Amino acid sequence: MQGRSSAIWLGTILICFAAGVQAAKDDLVTLPDQITGAGELWINADSKARDTLRSIPPEAALERFTLLDGQGRHVAYAGLTEGEVGGVVFVDDRLVGTLTHDDALLFYSCRGFVSAMHQHWAMQSPAWAESLLAAARPAGEALLRFSGKSTSQSIKSVVDNPLVVQVKAIAGAGTNPVEMVKTLYKAHGDYRDHERDKQHSRALNDVRPGMSEAELVQVLPPESVTFLDAESLVMAYPRFSVEFFVTQGKVREIQQPAFSQLVKERASLFYQYGVDWKRCTPEAWREAKVLPAAAVAASAQ
Fold it and tell me: At what angle do helices 101-116 and 125-135 cross, to 10 degrees?
């Protein structure tokens, strides 16, 4: 009887904990749909850049960044992995244009190449921002459609989600009460760590270009630092795959995923066949694609 009560007690804990894990998982997934990431996002004159970038599901986001350009304006950008629109560009919180998928991918690859050559692209972020605005098609509104499916280059694929591992561990614990207790104990510890990470993530999300280096450190000390010169460095947080370019004591650019991390671990994400890498500069990146996308696809067959 006592063994049966223990089994019921363990089963109750398992159900409650699994429900808590699922609730936390749902909370992590951004709009449009909190579970699948599928749906539509309408951007118009009333849409704010910060809210819009957060609302793009990580399954569909190639990258997101915000920076201060040469005129002191806030330029925000999100590259997309699917849909009719390849990227959206904001200036001072207002949508100003969209990119094609070819341009969005080339913009991503060229900046990754530059960063891999130990010349982090943010060192020339005003010039890259200027070229981005020049490449954008003027637009005051845009409709983004998301399938909920992820790709190898999406932010969701780059940023690991430990909750998935926890759920699999619980499911694989079997019916052995001892193993279930061990698994639940470990999962509970992981869950608490994850909750703490969520708090840190929210705090990092509140950092904006123009804030001081000291304010960023107060939020969370960097997990990784790349020194670029005597006045500039990249402060990275690999757990969240986000990085902050700091120069002269000020945050100038915020990027997700962290290019400083990807160039060391997954530089293949930036690779495209048929690119003239010598042209990967702020001025010439749009001419870097020697072969059109159709020709590249045909040559691969």
Answer: 170
* HEC readout, 148-210: CCCCCCCHHHHCCCHHHHHHHHHHCCCCCHHHHHHHHHHHHHHHHHHHHHHHHHHHHHCCCCC
What pLDDT score was predicted for residue 109? 97
Summarised one tens digit per residue, pLDDT across range 31-50 is 556 566 788 999 999 999 99
Instruction: State the alpha helices, DSSP H only, in the chain.
Output: 2-28, 49-55, 101-116, 125-135, 155-158, 162-171, 177-205, 213-219, 259-265, 293-299
To the nearest 10 degrees (0 to 180), the angle between helices 162-171 and 177-205 is 170
Q: Residue with structure tokens 């040559």?
A: 299
Are 246 and 234 in contact, with CB atoms under 8 Å apart? yes
Compute the C-alpha angle 280/142/60, nearest 5°: 60
Tokens 């699948």 label which residue? 36
The pair of structure tokens assigned to 124 is: 């020339």
What are 13's two structure tokens?
Answer: 């804990």
The two structure tokens encoding residue 203: 């705090």
Which pLDDT tens digit goes with each residue over 53-75? 999 998 899 999 999 999 999 99
pLDDT, greater one: 30 or 255: 255
Q: What is the C-alpha to C-alpha distance for residues 7 and 15, in angstroms, rounded to an integer?
A: 12
- Rounded Cα gap, residues 153 and 59, in angstroms: 9
pTM higher than the cut 0.85: no
Rounded Cα gap, residues 235 and 218, in angstroms: 13
- With CA atoms as reference, report the closest residue to 147 among 86, 57, 63: 57
